[in-house]
Amino acid sequence: MVSITVRNLDNEVKIRLRVRASAKGRSMEQEARLILAEAADRELAPQDGLGTVIEGNRVRTLV
User: Does residue 62 have a pLDDT over 60?
Assistant: First the structure.
């Protein structure tokens, strides 16, 4: 595991993170780790292929 330091974090962001973590019964550190992991996973998630985009456009046109 690695550690990171987040500098210049807006105080309002810190407060919202603390409230969000508390509402879920987590520490701020645990909540931040989960947020970062979810964001990284979304970035790596496969995007719709061309066929999916074309089919989606066709269906919207027909409706």
Answer: no
